[in-house]
Amino acid sequence: MTTATATLDRSVDGQPFPAVGTYEIDAAHSQVQGIVRHLKVSKVRANFTDFAGTITVAEEPTRSGVQIAIAASTVDTRNADRDAHLRSGDFLDVEQFPEITFRSTSVEPGWRVTGDLTIAGVTRSVVLDTEYLGTHKSPMGPTIAAFEATTTINREDFGITWNAPMEAGGVLVSKEVKIELEIQAALQGQE
Question: Whole-angstrom Cα distance, residue 178 to residue 37?
Fold first, then answer.
């Protein structure tokens, strides 16, 4: 169910679409998260608490774009020892690679966003399956657009191969990482 306010959206090929402009991601009202299987049965959620970026909405939707930079050192799994390990050279190597970045290379109808994801100095093309949730006028003034996006990557494709075998078979941490984004962004250039 979309929560868009019709007067703030425009219609492109019968689909709601935000107004043309540059939208700055509001990190206080957004979330960037990676999810992995742990011990083969449970999930660990890693939130990143410091990130910034923009969504540029073009008149022609396929000319739109997105870019985001995430401070890798802000990974937070609610376990200090695990977070320190994730920041180490076994995983994100934040001293050598302080940022995780995504820069779109194409936007297809239906908000299928392809782009270059860089983690620990390795860049791979990924596809974000994105949903536009609508636009509202904030009580604080700016027009706000909201999006959700997901993708799944193999962390080993980014050179992150650390693992530990389990006595009963298998490994401690899955190779597969699900990335989830919940984004709220403010239209820039408004009075």
Answer: 9
